[in-house]
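Worked example

This section walks through a single chain of length 291. The input is the sequence exactly as stored; nothing has been trimmed or padded.
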Amino acid sequence: MKEKEKVIIDSALKFFAQKGYSSTSVQEIANDCGISKGAFYLYFKSKDSLLYTIMHYFYEEVVSAFKDIAEKESTPRQKMIEQMTFMLDHSLKHKDVIIMQTREQAIPLNDSIKQLIVQMQTELQQNTIKTIYEIYGDDSQKYLYDLLIIQEGLFHSFLKTLFLNQAMVTTQAAAEYILKRLDSMYLDIKESKEEPLVSNQFLSQLMRKPKINFMEHNNEKIIITIDTIRSKLEYSANKEDLEVSLDVLLEEVRNTEPRLPIIKGMLSNLHEHKASREEQKLIADFYHISI
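Given that input, the structure is written out below as tokens.
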């Protein structure tokens, strides 16, 4: 991640925590970073793109920490305590953003952000189920999803309590306490020989979500739009010059990191072609460029 991107992310997190996501403008973030609004779009395509990058950054922190814990020579119990301790610490570190997300239930999430949230939740749940199974063994297999729900309920309840009073207890003490309570509940379930409340099959279907390519640049619609413009050039007096601009535009759109000044320049070259104004506006809106 580039240094300027980190500066923008830090500024955005500050404003999101203070004002909320919906009430924060790109202009405010740009002003705080000492850059122009146009310069902001050199690093992030939109405010949604910025939010996605922030969430993906948080996700990578969790993945890296869980990988380190998994590679340690420790018991499953110790690993689960470390995992919960990390998640509590990580959540407290980003407390303001989590509270903002909870408060703003109506944040407009695009498909990429929705998919990322699903993947984060799914992988965390699968990791927890694996660790629960390693702790309690084969006898726990049919109760794994009941135990997952209980563990998540305890975890989130203690997290809310720590949000209110972080000094009340250490995160490690909370993690150890949660696991002990899970022990007690599992023993009670096992001794009573009750049937599981939630079947493994039901929840495994809910958790079976497709993976996504985080680096995918969603440019297919723009490429089709460029082809549409090209098809409208047939009777243009300066057809050859316009086609050169389209070629440059197409090449830039296909780049992993499109350069917005070049895209804006090519759209400027196309401006006099009135028949494709609608398509030009669609491309400009996609990259948040004013034409």
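What to look for: The chain has two domains: 67-207, 220-286.
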